[in-house]
Design goal:
The chain contains four helices and four strands. It has 135 residues and is an alpha+beta fold.
């Protein structure tokens, strides 16, 4: 779901992605780890050590303030790239059984899917083009 980072997601007052989620840094995509307050964790997708943005005591991203992101403009690649509408559209392409498994097993998956659906209905985007196999 990687994007150029130069697009607009109409988040409005939604802060779902900034709360109770590990926001992983991607040095290979330009994130300079030393610029952020981080924690060392094991990535659930790779099982390898990774750097993620620290959390406030309530589970929010350390950089989430009362009016939104306090580091917008230098926020990590994953924050620039993620669009819940595209997440929703991508999930729709997966077999129903796989979607149900993800809804049961993946933390906050169902909530993110529902938010993506609502956002897609209000502010539609085109699905990402399919990547050729082997890419």
């Amino acid at each position: 779901m990687a994007r150029s980072g130069n697009f607009s997601v109409p988040c409005g007052s939604c802060r779902h992605c900034c709360q109770h989620e590990w926001i992983f840094l991607r040095p290979e995509e330009g994130d300079i780890v030393e610029l952020y307050e981080t924690v060392d964790i094991v990535s659930p997708s790779t099982g390898l050590p990774a750097k993620a943005l620290a959390h406030q005591p309530n589970g929010d991203c350390i950089y989430l303030g009362a009016t939104g992101c306090t580091i917008h403009g230098r926020h990590p690649a994953v924050c620039r790239d993620f669009d819940c509408r595209r997440f929703y559209l991508k999930v729709l392409t997966e077999p129903r059984q796989e979607r149900r498994r993800q809804m049961r097993e993946i933390h906050r998956f169902q909530e993110t899917f529902a938010i993506g659906k609502r956002m897609q209905e209000a502010h539609p985007v085109e699905p990402e083009p399919a990547k050729p196999s082997g890419v």
